[in-house]
Design a protein that fits this description.
- The complex is a heterodimer of chains A (about 550) and B (about 750).
- Chain A has about 550 residues and is of the alpha+beta class.
- Chain A folds into 3 domains: about 35-135 and about 255-280, no CATH class; about 145-235; about 295-545, MetI-like fold (Orthogonal Bundle), CATH 1.10.3720.10.
- Chain A has helices spanning about 1-5, 10-40, 95-100, 150-200, 205-235, 270-285, 295-330, 335-345, 350-375, 390-415, 415-425, 430-460, 460-465, 495-505, 505-545, and strands at about 45-50, 60-75, 80-90, 100-105, 115, 120-125, 130-140, 145-150, 240-245, 250-255, 255-260, 285-290, 295.
- In chain A, strands 6, 7, 8, 9, 10 and 11 form a 6-stranded antiparallel sheet that branches. Chain A has a 5-stranded antiparallel sheet with strand order 4-3-2-1-5, with no helix packed on it. A two-stranded antiparallel sheet of chain A has the order 12-13.
- The relative contact order of chain A is 0.09.
- Chain B has about 750 residues and is of the alpha+beta class.
- Chain B is about 40% helix and about 30% strand.
- Chain B has 17 helices and 31 strands.
- In chain B, α4 crosses α12 (about 605-630), α7 (about 520-545) packs across α9 (about 560-575) and α12 packs across α14 (about 650-675).
- Chain B is extended, with a radius of gyration of 38 Å.
- Classes of the chains: A alpha+beta (about 550), B alpha+beta (about 750).
- Chains A and B meet through α2, β2, β3, α7 and α8 of A and α2, α4, α5, α6 and α7 of B.
């Protein structure tokens, strides 16, 4: 062994293992996020536990097994000695009855052999109060029992679909139509304030404004009645009664039902179908119950809007600066210094960009814009408060070094001979750059942009200061002119993870959702990065042949 | 035919159209040159602006106060009548002067015009003593010559006669205009404190050597908003010092009897019936005497002005035996003349002094800053008052003038010493580094020491470097030097993929998954650190003993693949040893054992979690740069070494590493820079308590996480806001420095390689 070690063989093994450790960690992490994230969408089996309490009473607990933990129990004789007892975390749902969704069960209190799948159990997902776990008993419409027992399922299926359709219609009218009218009324109010401030609000304009306002109110009332009708319809869909663990009954209005399923009776194919359906819902629905349930649609829209806006801002800035530095600026110590500074800026903590964005963009730039153009809206700030524009600008600044550096790299890889060829044929420098150099550098610019997008999509710390909120009342893009609202606050996938994971009142309930959101974010970012790597590799091949 | 072409060419290449085209093209070229240069330079300037902006926000912190004369006028009322107190309204519009003769004069601060005049309801008696009860609520107390006590509260009434905002001072008597009978003869010394529930008063009657204390409960009347007092307890005791000053602190429990020479008795009034002497102390050095004394904001610290021109700050400090004792905290040198009066700010721990020679000085106690000093009037000053918002001072000269100053002094509470040095805060047992920037209480002393945050930042960075550096460097060595090209092609991007993972996800996993798991399987994690290296060693050695045919199945360049399952299994094995280990060594659970048997504090979100999670995030940064450096070592150096008979590892250590060491150094620097600035992981997994403990089982708060937590709530342009920007600047400078260092080292190395 000594000679083996003298040769340094063990170090080679150690170093090889260090690589293995990194690889195991990366893929282990990705696998765990994928597993835990996807698990959220799978219809879990529901079990029936008979819990024996210390007073001899037996309690029935029905729910999904979520987690197992070892609980420490201090020894009766010596508190320095402890024993570990497994505990199960059961999602029992029925929050309106039990008060909480989750229950810890001590393994000492149950007979493991007695645990069985709860037969014929139905899980009902509701718009409020979370899931219901119970057995379908009866279905009433207008006070009349329409179906009982087995037959309920079919009827409920039908009614629940109607309910969902109504729900979507109501949502559409409330958010898009009425939201639009409210937006117009608010604009009218601000315009009036503006005219008043300028002293041009005379009797004639007042009459005009009044007329417009009446028209809007009229429209508003019409839609309000339409909605009321829809609500009545939804209310008349009836209600379903389920028997839950402990012998109690729970009645759920059908308009409250998002969907329902019977996990223990589902075939594998049905489960797979349900799985993909859940993923679809997750991507397209609004969050519910303080973000702990439902989907992440607004967060996706917010992230995408912010990133696109950032790309629009960063591309010209980065490319311009890179062209200047590599084509026009005189090489020398100053340029070297600038180059090093820009390189280093990529290493400056993102939170520093965040405070810069808050201090400079929001308070100074935004404050001055408000003073100049939106004085009539005072004291409520328009641009002098964190919002989409400032977030995008901050992110653009944050990712600027990435774009500059990669564009420069692309420009410097283009053989000198091509430029000289262009110039020799009589093209001006600008023409050479535009027609020969830039097109060839496009893949490099693209790589830089993709990396910038990936970074911006995953960055949270600076956004917390310049415009991200946990729940934005409206999307930053909608159907009201000017369609994109730069001053709005928005939601962001990364911040969603932080917020739901750490600030939510019901941590146990929200964890699966956080894993699912993480998975979504990881998928987006990893695919962006893989795209960048592929483009870079192709680019290298291309110039290898050009260089020869 | 040919001629035709020639003619056409001629037409295109000569003539005005051609000239014009050339001109346009040249113009375009020039235009592009200038606009690109302009655009490029402005983008670069914008980027560099960040640093200047940070400095621009931080700079006002270290500027001195500016004091400007605003108005001067004759003292309202009689100049001979001694001033007891000046009450000033918040907007610096008007003031009230209370005089010894019981006169109340409301006047404008702009021109000194007297707006109203009133008399205190003294019933023919004289004011013999005066006590400032509560400056925030404008409550004053007067001891009268017949042994009675009058409590008055003044305020301001804002009216708009003829649309002009007029502020008139108003006075009311919360306990009625009828003075409260305390004793039978004139009250010589008086100290009084009042809160919503009770009132405590300490006094000395003339010709008496005894001090009396009385406490009352305060009840609101059912009929109107006046208050009623009912006596609760009292005591009278013989004094041991020749009392010149009688002081009762804000807690209503500590009573100080102070003599002219600076001898003080400190009584505890917890039980009002039997005051207990707990300390006899000498405030001043031999030969000095007290010229003025008062409480600082919060009524806790005593500010003692001496004849020799020094202000001493004393406050009670809990000692080892759990007894409060007065201690000297700090001193401020004013001048060589006696300090005649001290005035305090109403929202901060700042104060102003005047001395016998007519000099005015402005200080801040916590930050120990001497903000301004100038001579006002050679004939001397008789009164000084600071405006409620600390944006002005009012000075009364002995020659009967009132002088108004505007003061700009926003950032007095921050100094280099208060940011980086130990500060003895009120109520603390010793000077310490503390970060606690806000509190609900209005007389709160902000504690803004950057030390705990800097310490936390470095602690987090170092613990994660302990994890990241060995793995990243060893992995880089193998990937660059031993690994075959094909494996390297996918291994390198996979490791670098970590860099792309959003840190918010790593933070979430660290805080909500890793931290609880680590707490439950603590010994398993420690077992990993021992089992995995030993296991690798044994595995490697036994591999070398295997028959050649098996050994050759995995060439040296693919050992990583072989080790992936091995490492995984070793890790799994180590984790499964958790239970037996904990049962054998730690009475069943290591975390429990740490707290109860070893006495080590344990937080669930601690430095070890940070070490693993952030260390993981730092691996790609270090790996990538170090790998590049090793990979670029010229091939012929390696071949030479191998040809001379060195083993591959010997070549590695003897030739490659020395050549690549600058690159590896810069890799470590870059990793450290990134670790210092990382925000989300520490925010979510460190617990965010600003501690200064090296203990691996305790958390920390870093500069970056602190910014994320407090920035959004900091009031714009307050000291807190600017101090937060200062920590941002510190982060910026720190990372910029390390990155530049790394960059320069790398640049040098590149040049060296190209010459080799």
């Amino acid at each position: 062994m000594k000679s083996w070690m003298n040769k340094g063989e063990h170090w080679i093994w150690f170093s090889a293992s260090a690589v293995s450790v990194s690889v195991v960690l990366v893929f282990g992490l990705l696998a765990m996020i994928a597993y835990k994230g996807l698990l959220h969408f799978w219809p879990h089996n529901v079990y029936d536990y008979q819990v024996m309490h210390s007073n001899g009473q037996i309690e029935q607990v029905i729910g999904e097994l979520h987690d197992t933990k070892l609980k420490l129990v201090e020894d009766a004789s010596n508190i320095e000695i402890v024993h570990e007892v497994p505990e199960y975390l059961i999602k029992t749902g029925n929050r309106d009855i039990y008060g909480i969704d989750f229950k810890w069960i001590n393994s000492r209190d149950i007979d493991e052999t007695q645990v069985k799948l709860a037969d014929g159990i139905t899980v009902v997902e509701r718009y409020q109060w979370g899931n219901v776990y119970g057995h379908l008993e009866s279905l009433k419409v207008n006070g009349e029992v329409i179906a009982t027992g087995e037959a309920v399922k079919e009827v409920l299926q039908d009614l629940a679909e109607q309910g969902t359709a109504l729900h979507e219609e109501i949502l559409h009218i409330e958010k898009v139509v009425i939201g639009g009218i409210n937006y117009q009324i608010e604009r009218l109010r601000l315009e009036q304030k503006k005219l008043e401030a300028e002293g041009e609000y005379d009797a004639q304009t007042e009459a005009e404004f009044e007329a417009k306002r009446t028209a809007f109110n009229q429209e508003f009332v019409e839609h309000q009645t339409a909605i009321q009708q829809l609500y009545d319809q939804a209310n008349s869909l009836g209600e379903v009664t389920l028997g839950i663990a402990g012998g109690q009954k729970i009645t759920v209005k059908i308009k409250q039902v998002v969907r329902f399923w019977q996990p223990n009776n589902m075939s594998l194919i049905a489960k797979v179908g349900f799985f993909f359906g859940s993923i679809g819902n997750f991507l397209t629905e609004d969050p519910r119950e303080a973000n702990t349930e439902g989907g992440v649609f607004p967060a996706i829209v917010g992230t995408v809007t912010m990133v696109l806006l950032m790309t629009i801002l960063v591309t010209p800035m980065g490319v311009l600066a890179a062209i200047y530095m590599s084509e026009y600026a005189k090489d020398g110590p100053v340029l070297r210094l600038v180059r090093i500074s820009i390189n280093n800026l990529a290493g400056v903590p993102s939170i520093v960009f965040g405070i810069f964005g808050l201090g400079f963009f929001v308070y100074i730039l935004g404050g001055s814009i408000d003073d100049l153009f939106y004085g009539y809206a005072a004291p409520s700030p328009v641009f002098g408060t964190p919002g989409l524009l400032w977030a995008s600008l901050t992110m653009a600044l944050l990712t600027l070094p990435v774009v500059i550096v990669s564009t420069q790299e692309g420009l410097s890889r283009i053989p000198r001979s091509l430029r000289e060829g262009g110039l020799a044929l009589g093209a001006t420098k600008f023409e050479t750059i535009m027609r020969i150099v830039l097109p060839m550098a496009t893949p490099a610019i693209m790589t830089g942009l993709i990396l910038a997008i990936a970074r911006a999509a995953g960055e949270v710390a600076p956004l917390m200061l310049v415009g991200v909120v946990k729940l934005a009342p409206t999307l930053p893009v909608d159907f009201n002119a000017p369609f994109i609202h730069l001053e709005n606050k928005f939601m962001h996938l990364g911040f969603h993870i932080y917020d739901v994971g750490f600030q939510s009142p019901n941590v146990e309930a929200s964890q699966p959702l956080v894993y699912a959101t993480s998975l979504l974010l990881v998928v987006i970012i990893v695919s962006l990065n893989l795209g960048a790597i592929m483009i870079r590799n192709r680019l290298r091949e291309r110039y290898k042949s050009l260089g020869n | 035919m040919e001629k035709k072409i020639e003619q056409k060419l001629d037409k295109v290449l000569k003539g005005p159209a051609f000239e014009r085209r050339i001109r346009i093209r040249n113009f375009k070229d020039h235009f592009a040159r200038y606009s690109i240069s302009f655009g490029g330079i402005s983008v670069i300037a914008a980027v560099l602006l960040i640093m200047f902006f940070l400095v621009y926000v931080v700079a006002p912190l270290f500027t001195s106060a500016t004091v400007e004369k605003f108005s001067t006028f004759k003292t309202p009322g009689s100049a001979q009548d001694e001033t007891l107190y000046y009450g000033i309204d918040e907007y610096k519009d008007s003031a009230v002067r209370f005089t010894q003769s019981g006169q109340l004069l409301g006047f404008s601060l702009k021109d000194g015009r007297v707006s109203n005049e009133q008399e205190l309801p003294l019933n023919g008696e004289e004011i013999t003593s005066f006590s400032l009860v509560d400056e925030a609520k404008n409550i004053l107390a007067f001891g009268l010559s017949d042994g009675a006590l009058l409590i008055a509260q003044y305020g301001y009434e804002v009216t708009y006669p003829n649309d002009v905002k007029t502020i008139t001072p108003k006075i009311k008597y919360p306990f009625g205009e009828e003075p409260l009978e305390l004793g039978s003869s004139a009250i010589e010394k008086l100290a009084l404190r009042l809160n919503d529930e009770s009132l405590v008063v300490a006094y000395q009657e003339t010709q008496s050597s005894q001090i009396s204390v009385k406490s009352f409960t305060v009840e609101a009347s059912f009929l109107d908003d006046s208050l009623m007092l009912s006596e609760e307890g009292e005591a009278t005791f013989e004094q041991q010092v020749d009392v010149e000053y009688l002081l009762l602190d804000g807690s209503m429990r500590n009573l100080y009897l102070v003599s002219k020479e600076g001898v003080a008795d400190y009584y505890d009034l917890s039980d009002i019936e039997s005051p207990e002497l707990i300390q006899h102390v000498q405030f001043l050095s031999e030969g000095d005497a007290i010229s003025t004394i008062r409480f600082l904001l919060g009524d806790y610290s005593l500010m003692i002005g001496s004849e020799q021109g020094v202000v001493y700050q004393w406050f009670p400090v809990r000692n080892k035996d759990n007894v409060f004792q007065l201690e000297k905290i700090r001193e401020f040198k004013v001048s060589d003349n006696p300090v005649t009066m001290i005035a305090i700010e109403h929202a901060r721990k700042g104060f102003a002094t005047i001395d016998q020679a007519g000099q005015f000085d402005l200080f801040h106690s916590t930050s120990e800053r001497h903000l301004d000093s100038f001579e006002v009037d050679k004939k001397g000053l008789s009164f000084v008052a600071i405006m409620p918002r600390a944006n002005g001072v009012l000075l009364e000269t002995k020659s009967g003038q009132l002088i108004n100053y505007n003061v700009e002094n926003e950032y007095a509470d921050v100094s280099f010493k208060s940011l980086w040095g130990k500060v003895w805060y009120e109520g603390y047992e010793e000077p310490n580094y503390i970060w606690q920037s806000s509190s609900a209480s209005s007389d709160f002393e902000p504690k803004m020491s950057m030390m705990p945050l800097t310490f936390g930042t470095i602690k987090a960075a170092i613990y994660s470097m302990l994890f990241a550096v060995p793995i990243a460097i060893l992995a880089a060595v193998y990937t660059a030097f031993f690994m075959d090209a094909k494996t390297r092609q996918w291994i390198k991007p996979s490791v670098e993929l970590i860099e792309a993972l959003p840190t918010v996800i790593l933070g979430f996993l660290a805080g909500l998954w890793l931290a609880p798991m680590m707490e439950a399987n603590l010994s398993g994690f420690f077992a990993i650190l021992i089992v995995v290296p030993i296991g690798i060693l044994l595995f490697g050695f036994s591999w070398s003993k295997l028959p050649k045919s098996i050994r050759l199945l995995v060439p040296e360049g693919k050992r990583t693949l072989l080790m992936i399952p091995v490492v995984f299994l070793l890790g799994y094995f180590a984790m499964s040893m958790d239970k037996p280990l904990e049962n054998t060594f730690f009475n069943g659970d290591m975390r429990h054992w740490l707290t109860y048997s070893a006495g080590i504090d344990f937080d669930q979100r601690n430095a070890m979690v940070i070490g693993f999670a952030m260390g993981f995030a730092l691996i790609p940064t270090i790996f990538s740069v170090a790998e590049d450096a090793i990979y670029n070592v010229p091939r012929y150096l390696i071949n030479g070494s191998l040809a001379l008979g060195a083993s591959s590892w010997q070549t590695m250590v003897g030739v490659v590493l020395p050549t690549a060491s600058p690159g590896i150094f810069s890799a470590i620097m870059l990793g450290f820079g990134r670790g210092v600035g990382e925000t989300m992981i520490v925010l979510m997994a460190s617990g965010n308590t600003p501690l200064m403990e090296l203990n691996i089982f305790e958390g920390m708060r870093t500069l970056s996480a602190n910014l994320a937590v407090e920035m959004a709530e900091a009031e714009v342009y307050s000291s807190h806001y600017r101090v937060l920007f200062l920590s941002g600047l510190a982060l910026f400078v720190f990372t910029f420095f390390f990155n530049t260092l790394a960059e320069i080292v790398r640049e040098r190395m590149r040049r060296k390689y190209s010459s080799l």
